[in-house]
Structure formats: structure tokens, C-alpha cells
Design a protein that fits this description.
With about 220 residues, this protein is of the alpha/beta class. The protein has a seven-stranded mixed beta sheet, sandwiched between helices. Helix 2 runs parallel beside helix 3 and helix 4 packs parallel to helix 6. The protein is globular and about 45 Å long. The two termini are about 25 Å apart. The C terminus is likely disordered.
Length: about 220
């Protein structure tokens, strides 16, 4: 299966740099709506068979233009929502307290899945819920699936599950609004990242440093 993981369009909390992860969350800014409107053109070369969005408002608003352009139903699933910030909710991400969010999340991708976000979920729970939606999509028989999800969740899941992307690579590359990571694989055989926001990623079986961007 070809899996397109797409971050939602810009929100007011993105502009303010806040850890805004709770339901239902804010809608898109005018720029975010423009980004969503541009998504069908950006993905014109992809034969998308199924389209998923999280339970947060911003992903469903981002998915709407793509769904309309392709005649697809938006399948809303809680499992691909953002990693819960718990007690860190609505803190500025650049503060020492706010930076604990990504440190914890990438610790999960490194294998410390028993660690909990302060006042929030564990890595095991977060990865399991994301895995479940990906497994559902794979079981559907769809060849290419787009999932409109969230920056931290996408980066952490990719670092945890793609054989050719490590934590150092993913942590150093924030995903822009409506940025896309493309992967290929299956839940049973594993995943490899093909591109990260348009830059090719070296497959593990082709040599070169793990997760090195070529483009």
C-alpha cells in the first residue's frame, strides 16, 4: 500500500506556536483554507483510493477539498488524531515545558513506549491507535490511501515504523502545514519512507545513511 500522511492546514494555534491537541480543536486560518484548497492540485499525480481524517476539526476541513475533487468519503478516525499534550496542553512549544512534549514523543519512537506524556497517554497507546487505523486501511484493499493527520503524530509514527527513517532524521525535520510524507509497505511487512515533503528518502536496502534526504 502507498500511504500519504498529510499534515492539516494552518490553524491559529500554529501561528501562536501553542500545543493545541484536544478535541475538537480550532478550525483553519484563511491561509490554512488556501492550503487545503491547493491540496488536490498538489496530489494530482496520486490515484487516491481512500481518504481518512482525524476527529479534530482542522483535519476534516483540510480533507474536504480533496474529498470533493476526488468524489471520496472522508473516513473520520480518532486513532490518527494528534498526540495528546496532557498537562502541557496550550503551552507555547518553544518554552522548556513545551519542549518536553516532543522530547517525550520522540522517546516513544526510540522505543520507550511505556513513558507517558505528563497527564496524558503512553507511547504504547498512541502508536497502537495510529497502527490500528493504518491496519484498517491496508485491510480494505486500497492501493493508495491519504490520511490527513497531525505534525507530531505523523513524524513520530513514521520514525517508529519506517525502516529507513530514524528519530534523528524525523526530529530535525518539522512537517509544514499540508506537508506530505509518502510511505510504502504493509503492517505485516513493514514500511519504508519514499519521500518527506518532496525530498526522496534513501530506502534502507539501497545503502547510504539511514533516513538521509537526497532531494
Amino acid at each position: 500500500m502507498r500511504l500519504l500522511l498529510v499534515r492539516h492546514g494552518q490553524t491559529p494555534s500554529n501561528v501562536d506556536g501553542l500545543l493545541d491537541t484536544a478535541l475538537p480543536g480550532p478550525g483553519l486560518t484563511p491561509l490554512g483554507r488556501a492550503q487545503a484548497a491547493a491540496l488536490p492540485g498538489a496530489l494530482a499525480g496520486e490515484g487516491i483510493d481512500a481518504l481518512y481524517a482525524s476527529t479534530l476539526v482542522r483535519t476534516q476541513q483540510t480533507a474536504a477539498p480533496l474529498a470533493a475533487a476526488r468524489g471520496l468519503e472522508v473516513l473520520v478516525r480518532d486513532g490518527i488524531r494528534e498526540l495528546s499534550a496532557g498537562d502541557l496542553e496550550m503551552l507555547p512549544g518553544h518554552t522548556p515545558e513545551g519542549r518536553r512534549y516532543l522530547r517525550t514523543a520522540f522517546a516513544w519512537a526510540s522505543g520507550d513506549t511505556a513513558l507517558r506524556m505528563p497527564g496524558g497517554e503512553s507511547g504504547a497507546a498512541a502508536l497502537a491507535r495510529y497502527d490500528a487505523v493504518v491496519a484498517e486501511a491496508a485491510a480494505s484493499g486500497a492501493r493508495t490511501v491519504a490520511m490527513i493527520s497531525h505534525g507530531a503524530a505523523i513524524r513520530v509514527w513514521t520514525a517508529a515504523r519506517a525502516a529507513n527513517v530514524d528519530v534523528t532524521f524525523a526530529a530535525a525535520r518539522p512537517l509544514e502545514n499540508t506537508g506530505v510524507i509518502i510511505l510504502e509497505g504493509t503492517p505485516s511487512d513493514g514500511w519504508k519512507a519514499l519521500s518527506w515533503e518532496g525530498a526522496a528518502v534513501t530506502p534502507a536496502d539501497e545503502g547510504g545513511p539511514t533516513g538521509e534526504a537526497l532531494g
